[in-house]
From TrEMBL:
The keyword Flavoprotein does not apply. It holds the Pfam family DegV. It comes from Wansuia hejianensis. One of its GO terms (molecular function) is lipid binding. This is DegV family protein. InterPro entries: DegV, DegV_C, DegV_domain_contain. The keyword Cytoplasm does not apply.
Amino acid sequence: MKYKIVADSSCDLNKEIKEKVDIDLVPFNISVDDEHFRDDESLNVNHLIQAMKNSPNPVKTSCPSPGDFLEKYKEGDNVFAVTISANLSGTYNSALLAKDMAMDSDSNKFVHVFNSKSASIGETLIALKIDELIKKGLGNMEIVTKVEEYIGGMKTFFILESLDNLIKNGRISKTKGIIASVLNFKPIMGSDEEGNIKLIENHRGTKKSFNRLVELIGETGKDFQDKILAISHANAIDKALGLKEKIEKIYNFKEVIVVETKGLSTAYANDGGVILAY
């Protein structure tokens, strides 16, 4: 019986993860004015960042279609799919429609779609958890139960260098964005239990925000020795590695991994943004 892990392209990966785990990505499409980008291996992220900086208009994204997911589902007997938060995109619904189509045509096929209630590196951690449980030989429904529990306990935080994209896309008001810029606020943001974006805390200056983020890990979690913490960054490797070093000095995570954002996550995080999940 062949297992298949599928995720949308918000799931950010690095070379080491790609070599260790087979995660098949279904790409988003991204538009900035008249330029169109497909969020796959051909995407030049730096080009996307520059196009976003040059445009006064919001970045437009279109989620994968049910047909896009269905093509991936056909390649496995037991399929586990992970999508960006259902409250941020219609991707989860596309993946569910594809599930119905796949199982209607093959009654022996198993497909389950997980709403990550997160994005970016949060999806990556869920895919890694699925792979771990498959390799342990757990049954399909055991995997579903344990992964849903994992999603329920997962924390996602992010700090953005620029709020421009959130303002352009109406995620935060223009007035709040201007105030944050003038006062040099670098807000710590995150996801709530339903996968919506929420403000966690406001701090003036990048250094204070990152130091506070490290403290929040200890305040919001425990028993880290069996957990992986993951950091994704949008053209901000120094920030990501500095954060990794601070975390490793204080906490005993099983592993701390760093990846670079691809297109969809970069469209949300913008240049200099850092996302953290565990």
